[in-house]
Design goal:
This protein is mostly helical. Helices cover 72% and strands 0% of the residues.
């Protein structure tokens, strides 16, 4: 759905729901906390950092956050975002499922409503990694990586939640294709392990996408907000382009070298490649903007599901 107009109170509550979702899996909480801290710094947002601290210190409850979302549209959006954060890696843990069940009750959403959202998010997070349509979309891995980076940079420019949720599935498809080109048959679990080694937080990456959209005014109709919105879009696009570019380049090195790259080296390389990718973003921004202008929800779904080329 498109992110509706939100006032300051609704924005804070929606951000808080995303953060609660990121912290819902106890096994991932330490890593997610570190990623959230980094995300707040990159966003330059005292709000995200403050909300995160209040949640972790037990000073902000899910009851209070849910109760502050007074419109049905905002409650539906909150559940959709939470489900997307929990399922970023393609699965939902028992702790995350318990959180989502509790959230649904607190948001007063019916079973049919939440089931529809669950199925929509599942269709993205659990989409097949392989696809016949993708096989010939790029002549070599460097060209393919650039195509995925441009696509994900373009997705960040779009106003809907679908575009944010599609970024990680496209990154995973890219890694799958790179591995396959080097004779390595990967599954979703292998790819999640590889991304974790590189220091890529899946849930926090989705939180960041949603946070940026909420904080830069998507859904706001006031003309005075346009300058800030455009600046926020460009920053988010640079991050998604840079992260996708870095993941692709590391995957190429990792699988072409027989998976011999160490964890510390992988993380260091990822950080430097993200910065390199952000610099390249400026060069490719016209192509990214052009790509964004042609994308629509049906095409995005087709690419994620593997029935259309990147």
């Amino acid at each position: 759905m498109n992110i509706p107009h939100t006032d300051a109170a609704a924005t804070e509550s929606l951000l808080a729901v995303c953060l609660f979702a990121a912290f819902a899996d106890g096994e991932q909480s330490d890593a997610e906390r570190a990623q959230i801290r980094q995300m707040a710094e990159e966003l330059g947002s005292a709000d995200v950092a403050a909300i995160s601290r209040r949640i972790l210190m037990g000073k902000l409850s899910l009851d209070a956050v849910s109760g502050a979302l007074v419109t049905h549209e905002h409650r539906m959006l909150a559940y959709e975002m939470a489900r997307a954060v929990c399922e970023a890696g393609g699965s939902v843990s028992a702790d995350e499922q318990a959180f989502l069940t509790d959230l649904r009750v607190k948001l007063a959403l019916g079973t049919a409503e939440s089931k529809t959202i669950d199925e929509e998010v599942d269709s993205l997070a659990l989409a097949p990694l392989d696809s016949a349509a993708a096989v010939s979309s790029a002549p070599d891995n460097d060209a393919m990586i650039l195509k995925y980076a441009i696509l994900n940079g373009a997705l960040e420019l779009l106003p809907d939640t679908l575009s944010t949720m599609a970024i990680i599935p496209m990154q995973m498809k890219m890694v799958y294709r790179i591995g396959k080109s080097h004779g390595v048959e990967l599954n979703r679990s292998n790819i999640k392990d590889f991304l974790a080694t590189a220091g890529v937080g899946l849930g926090s990456q989705v939180v960041e996408g949603f946070a940026r959209k909420l904080m830069t005014g998507f859904g706001k109709k006031l003309a005075g907000k346009m300058a800030g919105r455009v600046a926020g879009q460009a920053t988010g696009s640079a991050f998604s382009f840079g992260a996708t570019y870095a993941i692709g380049q590391i995957a190429e090195k990792y699988y072409s070298d027989g998976c011999k790259l160490g964890a510390a080296e992988t993380k260091n390389l990822f950080s430097s490649l993200v910065e390199q990718g952000k610099e390249l973003h400026t060069r490719y921004l016209p192509e990214i903007q052009q790509r964004a202008s042609t994308l629509n929800p049906a095409e995005i779904l087709s690419m994620v599901r593997g029935t259309a080329t990147v």
